Amino acid sequence: MTMWHGLASRAVRAARAHHAADPDGFRRRHDNPEAWNRWARRARVARTVATALGVPLYAVLVTDDPRRPYPTRSGPVPGDSITVTDPVNGRAWRFIPDHTTPGQAWLLLDHCPDCAALIPVFRIAALADLGAYLQPHRDICLADEARDQSNHRPDCTMDHVTTPVHRRPLFDRIGDTDERCTVCGATNTRDAGSFPSLGGTTEWSERCTACGTSAGARDCDEDCYFPHPADVEREPGR
Q1: For the chain, domain boundaries
Q2: CA distance linking residue 180 with residue 185, whole number of Å
Q3: Is the pTM of this model over 0.70?
Q4: What stretches of 99-138 show up as alpha helix (H) in DSSP?
């Protein structure tokens, strides 16, 4: 059996990943100058995203976005769909370009808590921006695109699209009256007369009074971005 090491191993891994994600585009990248220019530009996008988010280059794939074509002088062309696969747990994070800052920032895609459509929700220019989105107790400004009706399903009310919504069950039961918040790890209680040292009272199991996170419209699935508290070090004083 042949063993690949170093550059050769990473090169073959990258080629296989691109071929699997976009077989037609990968095979035809040399067909004409326009195709090669698109390939080279997307390679530059991947390098920029990898640097900004601190992930290996092989973890970033840039392919056609069939839902979002962009106008050019020669006619519409497919937009960029950017997928970042976490090397640690395999979770996929999806982005599209932020055309208010071309080449410098991106829009994170997440599911609308009302209609479940994958919509642009938050502008990302650095790893800290992604961290801010994942901490619901922070004050953040969602992208205007999150409230654009055209990005949602026709029956969406969009009433919830004002702050990030944690779609995992908000509390884990740890006692007869105590529950642990799955966002910040604080102990909450349904006993109105009791205030544990690491939390406060819940609001009918709909809101953590320690970090302010509200329960989502549905349980999360494998696409949920929000980390489990065991994966995040608790902030001092919270």
Answers
A1: 8-151, 166-238
A2: 6
A3: no
A4: 127-133
